[in-house]
C-alpha cells in the first residue's frame, strides 16, 4: 500500500464493523482507532499498528524518533490510573503469501508469555507471576521476553502453576525460554547475540535461549511446521531479519499455524450481549464424541440474526484440542448443506440455553461437576457446578478448602440446564479457568 501524501486519507479495516481512517496532515499522521487516540503523548509522536502496517515499522520509527506506542492506561473506579502491561512485541498472522525465506524461524511455544523486567515476571496484562527466588536466581537484571513453558500439550498445567501465589516447588517443572531482549539495541540478530552473552554471564539454572534457525524456503517452512505439529507442537514463529523490537503488533513477527476443520451438531443458541444484543451471541454445539462447547466468532451480523437450526451439522475451524478434548479458539465456517437437520438424532442437551421460539422434548440427564479456578494477585479460589435432574448445586471457596455449597431447584430439568450454562458463562467471563479436579 503506498504512503499517504499531505492531505490524503485512507481506510483500513480493524476489529470492528467500521473501518478506521488514517490521515496525513502536514506530516502528522493520525488514525481514528482507540490505540492512537488514547496515547498520552504529543500527536506527532503517536503511532499504532494500522499506521505501521500502512507505512512500515522503519518509517514509523524514523518519523516518531523511536518512540514506542504506549498502551492506554487502565482507570479504576476511583479515577486513579492503574498500571498497564509491559511493552511487548506482538505477532501478526502469516498471510500465506509473504515470502519468509531467510527469516528467523522458531517453534511457537504452548506456554505462558512472560516479560522479565529485571526483577520479576509480568504477564501481558501487567500481573506478577510469583516465581520462587531459586527460580529467578542469576537471571540478568535486564528486560527479557520469553515463555514460561513445561512441554508440548502442557499449557493448562503451566497456567495452573505460574498463576499460584505461594512460590511452590511446582515451579521445578517450568522453564523460562527466552526469545528476545527488548532493551538491547540493533536488529534481531544483535539482540540474539546480546541475549546469549547475558545468559552466559548469569548461568541461570531454569532459563535458556529459545532456538532460532534461518528459514531456507517456503517448502522448508512447511516441512518444519508439519514436523512440529506431528510432535504436537503449536506452530512456528517467524522474525524478519534486522527487525527492531517495537511494542504492539508488527508484521515483522509472524505466527504460522495450521488450523483444523471439524463438524459439530447445533444444540442451541446463546443470546448475545453488547452490540449483539437481540441476536445470537454464540452457537452451542456438540462433537460426535459428546464434547460440548460454544462457537462465538466468525459470524456475520446476518448469520447472527438467522442462526442455523438446532440439529443442523456445521463446520468450524480450530487450532488444537485442549487436555479435555475441547477445540481451542473455534471459529465459525458454515452450515453443511449436504447434511439434513434431523431433530430425532440430536444428542440430549444437558447444559445449554435452547434456541428461542423452539420447543424441546429432549430429556436432560444429570451432569458431572465442572470445576473452575481463579488465581491472581489477590485471589486463590475455586467454583464448581453440577446438575441433577431439576436441581443445580454450586460449591465455592478458597482452593484447598471444602468451601460452601448451595442447591437450587427449578421447575424442570431444562430450566436447571439453562441456569448452569448462564453461570458457567458468567464465571468464564470473570476469568475462571476450567480444570480437572
CATH topology of the largest domain: D-amino Acid Aminotransferase, Chain A, domain 1
- Flag low-confidence runs: 67-83, 343-365
CATH architecture of the largest domain: 2-Layer Sandwich
Work out the oligomeric state of the chains in this entry. single chain
Give an account of the 3D structure.
By secondary structure, the protein is α+β, with helices and mostly antiparallel strands. The chain folds into four domains: 9-75, no CATH class; 89-256, 2-Layer Sandwich (D-amino Acid Aminotransferase, Chain A, domain 1), CATH 3.30.470.30; 259-362, OB fold (Dihydrolipoamide Acetyltransferase, E2P); 363-437, WGR domain (q64v53_bacfr protein fold). 19% of the residues lie in helices and 32% in strands. The chain has nine helices and 28 strands. It has helices spanning 34-37, 49-55, 57-64, 133-136, 155-162, 188-202, 218-230, 301-305, 413-430; strands spanning 9-12, 20-25, 28-31, 74-75, 81-82, 89-93, 104-108, 112-116, 121-122, 128-129, 144-149, 175-180, 207-209, 213-214, 235-239, 248-256, 260-271, 280-286, 292-295, 313-318, 320-321, 327-328, 331-335, 367-375, 380-388, 391-398, 404-409, 433-435. The strands form seven sheets. A six-stranded mixed sheet has the order 10-9-8-11-12-13. It has a five-stranded mixed sheet with strand order 6-16-15-7-14. It has a five-stranded antiparallel sheet with strand order 19-18-17-20-23. Helix 2 (49-55) crosses helix 3 (57-64). The longest helix has 18 residues, at 413-430. It is globular. The model is unreliable at 67-83 and 343-365 (pLDDT under 50).
Amino acid at each position: 500500500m503506498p504512503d499517504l501524501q499531505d492531505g490524503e486519507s485512507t481506510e483500513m479495516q480493524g476489529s470492528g464493523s467500521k473501518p478506521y481512517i488514517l490521515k496525513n496532515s502536514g506530516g502528522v499522521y493520525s488514525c481514528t482507532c482507540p490505540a492512537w487516540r488514547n496515547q498520552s503523548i504529543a500527536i506527532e509522536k503517536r503511532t499504532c499498528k494500522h499506521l505501521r502496517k500502512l507505512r512500515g515499522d522503519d518509517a514509523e520509527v524514523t518519523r516518531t524518533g523511536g518512540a514506542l506506542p504506549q498502551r492506554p492506561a487502565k482507570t479504576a473506579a476511583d479515577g486513579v490510573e492503574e498500571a498497564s502491561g509491559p511493552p511487548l512485541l506482538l505477532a501478526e498472522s502469516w498471510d500465506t503469501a509473504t515470502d519468509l525465506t531467510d527469516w528467523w524461524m522458531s517453534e511457537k511455544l504452548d506456554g505462558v508469555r512472560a516479560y522479565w523486567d529485571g526483577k520479576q515476571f509480568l504477564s501481558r496484562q501487567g500481573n506478577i507471576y510469583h516465581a520462587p527466588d531459586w527460580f529467578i536466581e542469576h537471571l540478568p537484571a535486564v528486560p527479557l521476553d520469553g515463555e514460561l513453558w513445561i512441554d508440548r500439550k502442557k499449557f493448562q498445567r503451566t497456567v495452573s502453576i505460574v498463576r499460584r501465589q505461594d512460590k511452590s516447588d511446582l515451579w521445578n517443572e517450568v522453564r523460562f525460554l527466552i526469545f528476545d531482549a527488548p532493551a538491547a539495541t540493533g536488529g534481531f540478530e544483535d539482540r540474539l547475540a546480546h541475549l546469549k552473552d547475558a545468559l552466559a554471564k548469569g548461568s541461570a539454572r531454569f532459563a535458556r535461549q529459545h532456538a532460532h534457525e534461518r528459514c531456507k524456503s517456503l517448502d522448508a517452512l512447511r516441512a518444519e511446521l508439519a514436523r512440529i505439529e506431528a510432535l504436537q507442537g503449536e506452530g512456528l514463529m517467524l522474525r524478519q531479519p534486522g527487525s527492531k523490537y517495537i511494542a504492539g503488533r508488527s508484521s515483522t513477527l509472524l505466527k504460522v499455524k495450521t488450523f483444523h476443520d471439524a463438524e459439530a451438531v447445533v444444540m442451541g443458541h446463546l443470546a448475545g450481549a453488547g452490540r449483539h444484543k437481540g441476536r445470537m451471541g454464540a452457537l452451542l454445539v456438540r462433537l460426535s464424541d459428546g464434547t460440548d462447547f460454544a462457537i462465538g466468532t466468525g459470524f456475520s451480523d446476518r448469520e447472527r440474526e438467522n442462526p442455523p437450526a438446532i440439529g443442523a451439522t456445521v463446520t468450524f475451524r480450530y487450532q488444537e484440542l485442549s487436555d479435555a478434548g475441547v477445540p481451542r479458539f473455534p471459529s465459525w465456517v458454515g452450515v453443511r448443506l449436504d447434511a439434513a437437520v434431523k431433530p430425532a438424532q440430536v444428542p440430549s442437551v444437558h447444559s445449554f440455553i435452547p434456541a428461542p421460539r423452539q420447543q424441546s422434548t429432549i430429556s436432560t440427564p444429570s451432569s458431572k461437576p465442572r470445576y473452575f479456578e481463579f488465581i491472581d494477585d489477590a485471589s486463590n479460589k475455586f467454583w464448581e457446578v453440577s446438575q441433577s435432574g431439576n436441581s443445580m448445586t454450586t460449591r465455592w471457596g478458597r482452593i484447598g478448602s471444602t468451601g460452601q455449597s448451595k442447591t437450587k431447584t427449578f421447575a424442570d430439568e431444562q430450566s436447571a440446564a439453562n441456569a448452569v450454562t448462564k453461570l458457567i458463562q458468567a464465571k468464564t467471563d470473570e476469568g475462571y479457568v476450567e480444570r480437572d479436579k
